[in-house]
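Narrative summary of target 7.
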Amino acid sequence: IESSLPRIVFALLLITFSFAIAGFLIDLMYVMIAIIISILSNNNAYYDAAQFQRQYLTASNFLQLGGAMFPTKNNTFIAGGLGLLMSLGNALLRMLFPLDIAVRGILGAGGLLVGIFNTDKWLTWIIHVFDNTAAVTGKIPGFLMGLIIIPIVSVILGGVGFFILPQLIIAILILLTAILLIIRIFTLLLKAYVNVLIMVIFAPLFLLFEAVPGRSAFGYWFKNMVAELLTFPIVIALFLVSYDIVNNLVTPSTAVWTPPFFGGLDPSAFSLILGMAIIFMIPDFVKQLKELLGIKGLPIGFGAGTFFGGVATGLGGAMGIVGQFGSVSLGLGAIGRMMGRSTNTNIEGKGLLDSLLGVKRPRSAGENAGAAAGASTPGIAQPQTGGQSKV
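Modeled conformation, tokenized:
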């Protein structure tokens, strides 16, 4: 008992100051975020540190997270995100030279052929429009206007297919990936926030086990608190590193190391690809950091399944029940056929056991009545004993 008294006293002190310790760690997280923003601004050469501190320290909604996903000077999706995605698609295509020329050529030729093979439709529409708007076009016939406009339309469609459509397709695919990534990062931050709240609320229960000999409950609680709180500075730091790489680190005159097979890599395209790749790897960075710190995390799973897992379970159970009914129905049908009883009472036939045992199943009254009606109906052939049939 005497040897346990110091641990009990230490556990009581930790329980008493647990909320103060948690508050200090949370304040330290905000200080760390402000320091990271200030350091990565390079003395405000890359961006306004005060503006970014206000932006990240007071971020209040999901859309601001989506805006941070696109490291542009105008940190919004509509103004900068769409242009950034198109630039990223173009950069990825340029890495695949000369394959990108072949893809652009195919799409450009496709656009040109669309304009050419739809000449009759274009011509009909143009004649209709220009012949009915003589006040606008003067006395120019619609057919002549068609000969002028149709080649222009075909060239425009070919240009769209060659210059715009390839990177637009890649941009749409990247956008779908980015939307899923935004949800992943938001879920990651939400999970860290919930875990911090759980450890703060239940800190007295966690730290109570510090009084048990051979256990270090405070170390476990402290390390998990630090790891969950570090999630926020790490995510913001990676956003800022990506911003610096895309907008400030590399210029067209900057010499960039190019390994074999990448000799034609454009420095600006390289910076864009590298910066976006860092953002797309944010969840993996956070996971690796926790593993390096040797933190297993709380044995509590939190995610979308926490709120919607019951729906998936219910649907899975319903599908299982439907499958069981289907299996029972097939089994009963097979047993009926084996016992010589057809599943449809209007069909005469032998089952497997009937055929093996040579058993003839007698006709029912309905079947006999149907056979008699068939015999009395003219034009229906009836079997005769002589092996021939009479009509």
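The longest strand covers residues 382-383.
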